[in-house]
Amino acid sequence: MAFQLLQKLRNKHFLSLAGNGIMSVLGMLNMIILYRALPVASIGMWVFFLSILLLVDTFRSGFLTTAFIKFYAGANDARKREVVGSAWFIGGAITGILALINIPAFLFSDWFKNPSVVLFVEWFGIIYIASLPYFIASCVVQAEQRFDQLLCIRFLSQGFFILFVMVMAFTKTANLQNIIYAYLGGAALTSIFTIVMGWSRLANFKDRTSECIKEIFHFGKFSVGTTLSSNLFGTSNTMIINFMLGPAALAVFNLGQRLMEIIEIPLRSFAATGMPELSAAYNEGNRPKVIDTMKRYAGLITMALLPACIGAVILADVAIHIIGGEKYINSEAANIMRLYMTFALLYPLDRFFALTLDVIHQPKINFIKVLIMLAGSVIASVSGIYLTGSIYGVAIAGVVPTLIGVGIGYWGLNRFQPFSILSVFTTGYTEAVNLARVWWGKLMVHKAQ
Questions:
Q1: How many CB atoms lie within 10 A of CB 245?
Q2: Is the model more confident about 160 or about 233?
């Protein structure tokens, strides 16, 4: 029985879900510590710094992640070495260019008046370099569907950081500068670990070819635009709030959004495991199977998220108290959380429509879609602040890009293979019922034994 349990725990879906779940739990714990250790304005500055850092990282992750998995998965050993070496070349080139850009920005950092911007300019180059090996390692192990190794990488990257933050909190040395040292240290130590373990495949750099570099580049030039523009939604809101309402308002808004991880955990997990399945169906030339697979994933996740969203709306005040502490009890954070959870059930449709468009070689539609979504998001957020004078305007405006994304994604997929949006929900309901029956049957058999 112990062996059977171990086999179930090694299931790729469980490991992917566990990886994202552990990351979110550690991130939440880290946030709880930071929100109590730093003043509200300092928290806002850290949120701004981290948001812009992750946005810049999108140039690398957006260019390589999807393209790497596409060209690596199912290839022969020689081709795999070629893909890894070519990815190292592109990743290194992107990292080097951004680090070089950082040098003059750093030299003229005194010209920037906003302290959040100064903080970013001073540190993003070195952090970007330190994280490159473990980023490549993450691409490799995800393409090989070694979600146990991906879990280890994610755990270490977040674990080192939170360990350093906890030490600072207990020794009363927590400040913005030390937090950044901790973040840099966590990235560097994780990269060293992946190099030592051989997961980053640094030795394959010599196997790169100009042909493979061009293949990855031409695919990545569209996927990077999609990923970058998609990440700009959150970053644009961060910048709008930071410059229009100030870092304190940004800290409250970020706290209210934090439990959106309830939605993001299964979305990231099943997107990682669903992409190979969608790609296999497309490579078979089976269009109905592609759409059926997409509907199964999107619909089932929507059904699974329904009770979580309802519970989050009801218990928002309790959640905010636990995460942020006493000083955020009477803030707008709980209502911000309720607003986002209200329309979060549309996220699985948006995410899997976009993923399927990439799989069927339509990244250009995704790219155009996210540009329209970004424009809609910025216009709606700025208008919302002008009309309400608070962060409520930004939260309400959040539904606009989601509706745009679902609409354009449906249009693009419907051209590929006609289906109705309603069928996604009916498929999800059927899958959920069948899954519940299977689990119930196994439970009854186990009790009978």
A1: 19
A2: 160
